[in-house]
Amino acid sequence: HGYISWESYANVSYFTRVLPPVPTDCPTPMGTKGPPQLPDAQLVAEEFFLRKKFHPDPQGTNLMFAFFAQHFTHQFFKTSGKMGHGFTRALGHGVDLGHLYGDNLERQHELRLFRDGKLKYQVVKGEIYPPTVLDAPVHMIYPKHIPAEKQLAVGQEVFGLLPGLMMYATIWLREHNRVCDLLKQIHPTWDDEQLFQTARLILIGETIKIVIEDYVQHLSGYFLQLKFDPELLFGVQFQYRNRIAVEFNQLYHWHPLMPDTFKIQDQEYSYNQFVYNTTMLMDYGVEALVDAFSRQQAGQIGGVPNIHKQLLKVAIGVIEESRLLRLQSFNEYRKRFGMKPYTSFQELTGEEETAAKLEALYRDIDALEFYPGLLVEKSQHNSIFGESMVEIGAPFSLKGLFGNPICSPEYWKPSTFGGDAGFQLVNTASLQKLVCLNVKRCPYVAFRVPGGGEDAVVLAKEKGPLDEL
Ligand SMILES: *[C@@H]1O[C@H](CO)[C@@H](O)[C@H](O)[C@H]1NC(C)=O
Ligand SMILES: *[C@@H]1O[C@H](CO)[C@@H](O)[C@H](O)[C@H]1NC(C)=O
Question: Which of 224, 291, 394, 425 is the most buried (most CB within 10 A)?
Answer without folding.
Answer: 425
